[in-house]
Design goal:
332 residues, alpha+beta, endopeptidase fold (from Nostoc punctiforme), Muramoyl-pentapeptide Carboxypeptidase, domain 1, 3 domains, 6-stranded antiparallel sheet, 11 helices, globular, CHAP domain-containing protein, PGBD-like_sf, Peptidoglycan-bd-like, PGBDSf
């Protein structure tokens, strides 16, 4: 049986792992897993397998939804970030729905901070394995692996319901009084009156009416307090514009600069530094090759011709350096 420390050590060893070529989903992790595809959860599996923790994380997964469901089926799931610890496997939904069925990314918690944020190590984030600083805005929940030294999960599942008590219930009651104009006694006791108020809130905002105040309802409440009617989707924070380091590393800054250049040619991309399907297709459209979202030899050859480097169909550091030079010069 492995340990939290072993899992984190393996994740740290993977920092900087990328793709060859960029956008291909091909690297040592996907080769180990057995196919080329989005590799955020493959990274978790790889690190677990190489630290004697594969059974602790519920097995080998590439599909994040199935992985979260496995944690839940084993009683090792918690919604939100309450009680999260280093070594936990945290799952994200960029749309902010807080639904397991909508999960599309995963990472491993490396550190928990006093301001409510976490530091994670994530595979396939801007096509690299990198550290990220995250808050709760896009977190669905986390699974606690059965490490040999694992701590017990928090005593509740992160959902407020009839019978719940404590500060979180007081906050909910205050928010219901604000949004729904109720006159609940703010006593931290989720009784019948609070249950009825939650159900009224759920009916008003088109949520499942079950009296349980979970992540989906909390996301809508956050928006409602600001006058909205739907969960607010967090806007991406792109790397800042400016001269690129000509270092041959195709990271978020280079990708964001390329997205800005493609937008000048009419692409209308969200500048987030992530080499996702829309960016790949926009690049192919600009290069006048087949627009299929797969960065293969034909796309790379066209890119190499565009930036003036040797044409061999292999996207390596030299191709990226020439791309960086072209982006800096405004000729791309």
């Amino acid at each position: 049986m492995g340990s939290v420390e072993g899992m984190l050590a393996q994740m740290r060893k993977l920092l900087g792992t990328g793709e060859n070529p960029p956008g291909s989903n091909r690297n040592a992790i996907t080769k180990w897993y057995g196919f080329s595809g989005p590799w955020c959860d493959m990274t978790v599996s790889y690190a677990a397998a190489h630290s004697d923790n594969l059974s602790a994380v519920c097995g080998k997964y590439a599909y994040t939804v199935a992985h979260a469901q496995a944690f839940r089926s084993k009683g090792r799931w918690h919604y939100g970030l309450g009680g999260v610890r280093p070594g936990d496997i945290v799952f994200f939904d960029w749309s902010g729905s807080r639904s397991i069925g909508a999960i599309d990314h995963v990472g491993v918690v490396e550190a928990v901070h006093s301001n409510g944020t976490i530091t994670t190590i994530e595979g396939n984030t801007s096509n690299l394995c990198q550290r990220r600083r995250r808050n709760s805005s896009t977190v669905v929940g986390y699974g606690r692996p059965a490490y040999g030294d694992a701590k017990p999960l928090p005593p509740n599942d992160g959902i407020l319901r009839l019978g719940s008590t404590g500060p979180a219930v007081r906050t909910l009651q205050q928010n219901l009084n604000t949004v729904m104009k109720t006159t609940l006694v703010v006593d931290g006791d989720f009784g019948q009156a609070t249950d009825e108020a939650v159900r009224a809130f759920q009916r008003k905002y088109g949520l499942a009416v079950d009296g349980q105040y979970g992540p989906s309802a909390a996301a809508v409440m956050k928006s409602a307090l600001k006058g909205g009617t739907k969960p607010q989707v967090p806007a991406p924070r792109p790397p800042s514009a400016g001269k690129l380091a000509v270092d041959g590393a195709f990271g978020p800054a280079t990708c964001a600069a390329m997205q800005r250049a493609l937008n000048r040619h009419g692409a209308k991309l969200s500048v987030d530094g992530s080499f996702g399907p829309l960016t790949k297709k926009a690049l192919q459209g600009y290069l006048k090759v087949a627009v299929d979202g797969a960065i293969g030899p034909n796309t790379v050859r066209a890119l190499q011709k565009k930036v003036g480097v040797g044409v061999d169909g292999q996207w390596g550091p030299d191709t990226t350096r020439h791309l960086q030079q072209a982006l800096n010069a405004g000729t791309f």
